[in-house]
Design brief:
It is a single chain. With 460 residues, the chain is mainly alpha-helical. It contains 21 helices and 2 strands. The longest helix has 33 residues, at 2-34.
């Protein structure tokens, strides 16, 4: 028996060493080959080399071709699990494209790379035990962090931010966005016009009240004839800063988003733009004003263009913006500590940018099964991004909500299932970050989030 165990152990060790040597050879050859890959600059080439040498492409690229040993029994199951997990939580294709083309790397991707570079959690220990050539060196870390900082300054920094916060994953709001004031005036009227609904009872402002944080305070919004939507209405404030619109990202632009509710049978329930235009045309004064800006007159395209232009003005600067611009007295000690914790705990790896969110899709329940804990049957809306992409790996992924005015936008999450901000913070720590906050830390983060409550000044 003892001899058999020795034979088994020897065979296992030989197999492990064989696979490790093969992996080392393959990874080294791939990393050397990556140097010849097209890159936008010498710096981009260095970054690509670091990523390739550490085999980030194995688990985080949709274009990966795994080496032959990944098909071996046992190794195959581990590889499949790692790839599925990697693709579910972070796909690096856009990063590789940016390094090749010199285009902006996604803001949320920069934050994720920065976080794992600082924490040393990638590549994972089990992966490194087989792939001997992987593991970030100090020089690797410096190359990646320098590139992240440079990319932020080049593509995402807000003019006027204090130098101390120029490399933060979040940024202050811009003073304004470029708009056509004549279109803004028309869009504001249309945003509040109930004639966009079939029975003339509901406007955009019905679910996105500008006096209530840009929401209606309901779990699900009421549509025509009392119909209920399937998800919680996101705030319209600062929505112009989101990379896509709706929880599932089905609208690429503000204009696309504005065109959805009027024709949604559960929301405003109009049957066509012709129906809406027919009513608006009867308003001679409004029609005269509209044609002065849009010479080709009423149409769904022009109506949504005007509403989108108005929504670009819905920015809500807060004390936090003053803080990031250098007024360190704008936040009290607890709020400033909460912001530091927000970054330290990993919240800012997803809630990035000027809107503290809206830049990526993330899976609800990364660290634990949030849907099981919720205790209610899943709905079609719970499929999230997968309803748009039809990719099973996108199931239960949702656009990260912006956190500005979060104090005013309860209930929280895509399903409106959480009513308290403190509970929402606890849930995010547990189910997304895999940690439990102390009472003091939770209180400080909530205090910081309340500092994001801003002021809307109507455009003139």
């Amino acid at each position: 028996m003892k001899k058999l165990l020795v034979v088994i152990a020897s065979a296992f060790l030989a197999g492990y060493l064989g696979i490790s040597v093969y992996a080392w050879y393959h990874d080294t050859a791939y990393a050397e080959a990556s140097v010849a890959q097209p890159a936008a600059s010498p710096e981009a080439s260095r970054v690509r080399s670091v990523l390739d040498r550490n085999a980030c492409y194995y688990c985080h690229s949709t274009k990966t071709v795994l080496p032959g040993y990944a098909a071996l029994p046992g190794i195959r199951q581990l590889s499949e699990r790692d790839v599925q997990t990697g693709l579910r939580y972070f796909r690096m294709d856009a990063i590789f494209d940016a390094l090749r083309d010199g285009t902006p790397p996604p803001e949320a991707d920069l934050a994720k790379i920065e976080a794992v570079t600082k924490s040393g959690t990638m590549p994972p220990p089990l992966f490194r035990s087989v792939h001997w050539s992987t593991g970030l060196t100090e020089n690797d870390r410096q190359i990646l962090l320098d590139w992240v900082a440079k990319s932020r300054r080049q593509w995402y920094v807000t003019q006027g931010v204090a130098e101390a916060f120029a490399n933060d994953p979040v940024q202050p709001l811009p003073d304004s966005l470029p708009v056509d004031k004549r279109k803004v005036a028309l869009g504001m009227r249309l945003f509040h016009d109930t004639r966009l609904s079939s029975d003339n009872t509901i406007s955009c402002a019905s679910c996105h009240s500008l006096g209530k944080g840009g929401v209606d305070g309901r779990k699900y919004s009421l549509g025509v004839n009392g119909g209920l939507g399937g998800v919680n209405a996101p705030t319209v404030f600062n929505a112009a800063l989101n990379h896509k619109q709706f929880w599932d990202g089905r609208a690429a632009t503000l204009q696309d988003q504005a065109g959805g509710p009027p024709l949604n049978p559960v929301e405003m329930a109009s049957t066509s733009w012709d129906q809406i235009v027919g009513k608006l045309k009867q308003d001679s004064a409004f029609t005269s004003d509209f044609v002065a800006v849009y010479p080709n007159g009423w149409s769904g395209k022009n109506i949504t263009d005007a509403i989108a232009e108005f929504e670009k003005t819905l920015l809500t600067p807060s004390r936090f913006d003053a803080y990031l611009r250098g007024n360190l007295h704008a936040l009290n000690t607890e709020e400033a500590r909460g912001y530091a914790l927000f970054k330290e705990k990993g919240c800012a790896s997803c809630h990035v940018g000027k809107n503290l969110g809206g830049q990526s899709f993330e899976h609800m329940g990364r660290a634990a099964d949030w849907f099981a804990a919720r205790g209610t049957e899943p709905t079609e809306a719970d499929n999230g991004r997968a309803n748009v992409t039809k990719d099973p790996l996108d199931a239960r992924a949702f656009k990260v909500p912006g956190l500005r005015n979060v104090e005013l936008t309860a209930p929280y999450f895509h399903d409106g299932s959480v009513t308290g901000l403190d509970e929402a913070v606890r849930d995010m720590a547990k189910y997304q970050l895999g940690t439990t906050l102390s009472e003091a830390d939770e209180k400080a983060i909530v205090a910081f989030l309340k500092s994001l409550t801003g002021t809307y000044t109507p455009a003139r």
